[in-house]
Amino acid sequence: MYTQKVINIFKYPRNAGGLHGANGIGKAIDNSCGDLIKIYLKVNEEGVIEEAKFKTFGCTASIASSSMICDMIKGLTIEEAQEITGGDVLEELGGLPVEKVHCCALAEESLHKAIEDYFKRLEKEQKKLEE
Ligand code: FES
């Protein structure tokens, strides 16, 4: 059974959609269920996440987890966001049915890939400046 909070977020997700000018994009797929979560980050020059959005093809819990993780990381530094885990998302959602707990882990994986992508882009830019 989903909590009312999860159902509400699923019905009215925040942060849904792509993000123009994103400088960190991550995608994670769970091969067992086929759900996909893509997270877009816009990180400013101070390394603070100004905006976070998601596109998710999946179950109620993966959509709720995506929406929640985006809410949780907005305003955090990229280093702080790296510390966010699927367990934190699960707690913020007020729990999920046991067979849906992996949806939070998928949101975490997608976020970490977006952060990785951000650092790769940053490194590329810095190399360009050094040339
Ligand atoms: Fe697998 Fe939601 S059922 S991520």
Structure description:
Helix 1 packs across helix 2 and helix 2 (60-73) crosses helix 5 (102-130). This protein has 5 helices and 3 strands; from the N terminus they run H-E-E-E-H-H-H-H. 34% of the residues are buried. It is elongated and about 55 Å long. The termini are far apart. By secondary structure, the chain is an alpha+beta fold. Strands 1-2-3 form a 3-stranded antiparallel sheet. It has one domain: Sufe protein. Chain: A (Alpha-Beta Complex), CATH 3.90.1010. Residues 30, 33, 35, 58-59, 61-62, 100, 102-103, 106 line the site of FE2/S2 (inorganic) cluster.
Keywords:
131 residues; alpha+beta; Sufe protein. Chain: A
Helix segment tally: 5
Q: Any idea of the CATH topology?
A: Sufe protein. Chain: A
Residues in helices, as a percent range: 40-55%
- Rounded to an integer in angstroms, the radius of gyration calculated over CA atoms is 15 Å
Kindly name the structural category.
alpha+beta
What is the string of SSEs from the N terminus onward?
A: HEEEHHHH
State the distance separating the first and last CA atoms.
56 Å
pLDDT average, as an integer?
Answer: 96
- Tell me the name of the CATH class: Alpha Beta
Catalogue the ligands. Answer: FE2/S2 (inorganic) cluster
- The biggest beta sheet, please? 3 strands, antiparallel
- Percent in strands: 15-25%
Number of domains: 1
Q: How does the overall form come out from the CA principal axes?
A: elongated
Strand order of the largest sheet: 1-2-3
